[in-house]
Amino acid sequence: MNMILRRVSLLILGLAMFTTVASSAIGGDLAKVMEARGLTENDVIRAAKTYNPTGVKDEFVVFSSGGQSGQVIVYGVPSMRILKYIAVFTPEPWQGYGYDVDSLKILRQGNIRGREINWGDTHHPALSEVDGKYDGKWLAINDKANPRIAIIDLEDFETKQIVVNKLFKSAHGGAFFTQNSEYIIEAAQYAAPFDNNYHPIEEYKETYRGGVTMWKFDSKKGRIIEDDSYTIEMPPYMQDLSDSGKGVSHGWAFTNSFNTEMYTGGIEVGMPPNEAGMSRNDTDFLHVYNWEKLAKVANDPKNVTIINGTRVISMETAVANDALFLIPEPKSPHGVDVSPDGEYITVCGKLDTHASVYLWSKIKKLIDTKDYAGRDPYGIPILDMKKALHGQVELGLGPLHNQYSPVDGEIYTSLYVDSQIVKWNYKTLKVLDKENVHYNVGHLAGMEGKSSDPQGKYIISLNKLAIDRFQNVGPLHPQNHQLIDISGKTMDLLVDMPLPLGEPHQAVAIRAEKLHPHVRYPMGTNSKTGEIHVGKTLAGQERIVRDGNKVTVYATFVRSHINPERITVNKGDEITMYMTNLERAQDETHGFTIDNFNIHASLEPGETTEIKFIADIEGVFPYYCTEFCSALHLEMMGYLMVKDPNKKYVSAQKLKMKTMTPEELKAEYDKTVAVNTATDAVIQSVVAFLKENKFGDHKVVADLVTDAFDQYGQIPAQKKLSDDAVASGDLEKAILFENMIWQLMVKTADVGIRAKDALVRLVATKQSPSAQAGERAFGEGGCGGCHVIGKVSSGPDLTGALQRHENPEKWVKEFILEPEGMYDDPYVKSMIDYFKLKMPNQHMTEQEATDIIEYLKWIDENANLF
Ligand code: CUK
Ligand code: CUA
Q1: Do the beta carbons of residue 591 and residue 627 sit within 8 Å?
Q2: How many Cβ atoms are within 10 Å of 203's Cβ, its own excluded?
Q3: What pLDDT score was predicted for residue 142?
């Protein structure tokens, strides 16, 4: 009821605003758009806060878990534009992940007890830290269903490692980095035996266990070192989320839990369901442990048991070393979040309306003075809840997760049941503001909001339901991430973003400028290892090597051919293909498939990758590049021909085709050479333009020019082959080589013109608002249908139009407004005769005509650029 009232009052407020807008001073075009789309002034402000004009990039980059898709979603804030899905636990064909040998090796690191697993339930992405701040180097993410952690390299946004937790049977409270990325925390969820044997549920308390694994992380190499990792045995409470201590609490970590009741259900034998029995107690336990100390303890073999090849510190040993404690926390809690300075630890009880704030200094004092309130059944000291608390705040129904802002004491908490975000202060324990979201928020993500240096500005609400927010696409709805502006005194919901992938639990955001991904690999790199690939193949080294029934192909890819173009093998041969993308140009990825063989690879510039398959069916199989990489992309293909060595093939009757006479061949050769000469002249004019306008001053343009010269540089070699063919009298072949020269020229021109366009945009003078309006009017009025700037098209080039007449502005304006009146003007008449077209009346307003003239002036100013 309360909520409905609130929404109604919001609606009234919205209407009130709309009336104010109508009378406010919003300019002509904008007012028209607002009216047509029914937008309020606030809507327009929100749009402006999230809109990125073309080419403008975001301030923050978000890494969101892709839930059951087993991937990571990357998007920008504030635009909420999706940038990438990173393949992690699941095969992903576009990136070739799981289809080429090298990425399959990573995917298969995730096998559990010999079984292939081709999905993951990703929950918590985490960014590597230095001093508690994100360094933009590595991303870790957990799989809850199949307890695993994956490491993603932020230099190329590729998964580099998957490690399997050999003790846990599920794991939720990960991944969380410690303050200097010394370790990655992964807590179990559903307690189960550490060994792989059967243990009856009646022996739950004796043989089922929870725990926390501390994965040792090498932050230079970006790899988990399994042998240096260890696991702390914990009671069979269901450990849930974790957070690492930082600042004053560095060296410690916190993991909360539910089902301290140790209830094991049994609906089928007449017991109440798990949900009743597991939520019976008013409090559960926050686990507090000293991982720094336990890491040293684990180094003495006497202190650990090896189970399934991993080091386990028993509860007893942890307790004996004063390194494991419990504190009561209300009731079936979910999030535990340590403040930026490490002093305040906030726990939200899902089934409690409060957030509980614990003080590290109080906890530490209780630990140091051994002031225990008792022990749990496993002998772990329990600290008194009241003595450890700073205080509790009533927030609302179903508090879950927390994020911080740079404002001292400011914290944001998601309310699952109330579908709200609460802003409050964990020091003064005061609630400051609430914002409605749609509906049922889980995690929320601040900008670096869990680091020791939160950036504020925005909170993203990761909602579980998207009821009524988007077009209905069937019963399975998209996810909904809502962006909230937190820069003002109160929160303001800016925009909804549907996410059409699995349920994203948690997301982490980082300042975009902290990321430094590269755009190409050193030539021949195996992107999964970072080393030079054994199959690296350079131009001229392409070959097919046969050894018994093993065929190895060393192939190269460059616009727009795959070398080799014909591969003939016997049925049953084992084929290995090493493929190198020779491109150095940014974004010149080539894809590769052989039809019908369930093969796909993605080759980024400089990358070498390997595919393997058995040619087990006879036939002819086209292979081709799957990325539209150039104008001749369709021609980037070849044939795999698989023949049966036990079959006799009768050759087909050759078709009789007319061959060309020597004169005809000569004529075609001359024509081809002439076309090449003409094309070269165009290229030289572009080159001259680029040089005149100092392309070297602009990195983007300089890179494109390098790429163009790469293509151009291949021409002399082809010319020599052509000349050799002419010398030996083989004009047929010479024509083909001349054609290849033309292809290289087209590719050069393609990139060259791209460079020229980029340069024009960079060096042109800025348009005045009137000139901008003029360009818009020019476009919307359809003028571009006949007039192309810089070119004579189906109408005259308008460059210099203002210099062709006396009193030109008046002349042009009149002509735009009423062309019919001037059809007899001698100049206009000659144009009509030439183009066989009359300038139509486009019914422009006076203002539009004036603006178009401003636009034409701008064109003349920059005439040398068009
Ligand atoms: S969990 Cu899903 S909303 Cu896995 Cu962090 Cu809380
Ligand atoms: Cu390479 Cu298409």
Answers
A1: yes
A2: 10
A3: 97
Long-range contacts of 642-647 (CB under 8 A, 24+ apart): 642/568, 642/569, 642/570, 642/571, 642/573, 642/615, 642/617, 642/618, 643/568, 643/569, 643/570, 643/571, 643/618, 644/570, 644/571, 644/618, 645/570, 645/571, 647/618
Q: Is any atom of ligand 2 closer than 6 Å to the C-beta of 216?
A: no
Ligand nearest 633 Cα, by number? 2
What is the DSSP track for 708-738?
A: HHHHHTTHHHHHHHHHHHHHTT-HHHHHHHH
Q: CA dist 195 to 172, 200, 306, 466, 832, Å? A: 19, 13, 10, 41, 90
Predicted local confidence at residue 12, as pLDDT: 46
- For residue 634, give the ligand 2 atom closest to its CA: 2
Contact 234, 167 (CB under 8 A): no
User: What pLDDT, on the 0 to 100 scale, is given for residue 5?
Assistant: 46
Q: Tell me the C-alpha to C-alpha distance, in Å, between residue 171 and each of 66, 122, 168, 188, 410.
A: 16, 10, 7, 4, 30
Q: Are 290 and 364 in contact (CB under 8 A)?
A: no
Note the ligand closest to the C-alpha atom of 592. Answer: 2
Residue of 282, 386, 384, 286 lying closest to 335 (CA atoms): 286
- Give the CA distances from residue 823 to residues 783, 833, 838, in Å, rounded to whole numbers and listed in that order: 18, 11, 8
391: left (phi over 0), alpha (psi -120 to 50) or beta: left
Looking at residue 255, what is its pLDDT? 97
End-to-end CA distance of the chain: 64
**Is the minimum distance from the CB of 636 to ligand 2 under 6 angstroms?**
yes
Q: Which atom of ligand 2 is nearest to the CA of 633?
A: 2
If you take atom 3 of ligand 1, which residue's CA is the nearest one? Answer: 442
Peptide bond into 539 cis (omega under 30): no
Q: Which atom of ligand 1 is found nearest the CA of 443? A: 3
Q: Which residues of the chain have pLDDT under 70?
A: 1-26, 866
| Residue 495 Cα to ligand 2 middle (Å) | 37
From the CA of 623, which ligand is nearest? 2
Three-class SS state of 375: strand
Which H or E element spans position 648? none
- Residue 397 tokens read as 């129904």
The verdict on the CB of residue 625 being under 6 Å from ligand 2 is yes
pLDDT of residue 25: 57
Strand order in the sheet with 71-77: 82-87, 71-77, 60-65, 507-511
- Using CA atoms, how far residue 451 sits from 338, 448, 497, in Å, is 9, 5, 25
Which ligand neighbours the alpha carbon of 560 most closely? 2
**Side chain identity at 21, as an amino acid letter?**
V
What is the CB < 6 Å shell around ligand 1? 123-124, 172, 241, 334, 400-401, 442-443, 505-506
Give the three-state DSSP class for 623.
strand
Contact partners, residue 204, CB within 8 Å, separation at least 6: 191, 236, 262, 264
Cβ 590 under 6 angstroms from ligand 2: yes
Cα-to-centroid distance, 500 and ligand 2 (Å): 28
Tokens 């075009």 appear where?
29
Half-sphere exposure of 357 (CA within 13 A, CB side): 22
User: CA 588: distance to chain centroid?
Assistant: 18
- Please give the Cα distance from 471 to 297 (Å, whole number): 57
The verdict on the CB of residue 747 being under 6 Å from ligand 2 is no
User: How many angstroms separate the alpha carbon of residue 700 from the centre of ligand 2?
Assistant: 22
Name which of 751, 725, 753, 752 is nearest 738 in CA terms: 725
CA–CA dist 811, 677 (Å, integer)? 42
Are the C-beta atoms of 128 and 135 separated by less than 8 Å?
yes
Minimal CA–CA distance to 179: which of 124, 250, 229?
Answer: 250
Separation between Cα atoms, residue 730 and residue 736, nearest integer Å: 10
Please give the helix or strand (H or E) that residue 7 lies within, else none.
Answer: helix 2-23
Give per-residue burial for 358-379: e unless 16+ CB within 10 Å, then b. Answer: bbbebbbebbeeeeebeeeebe
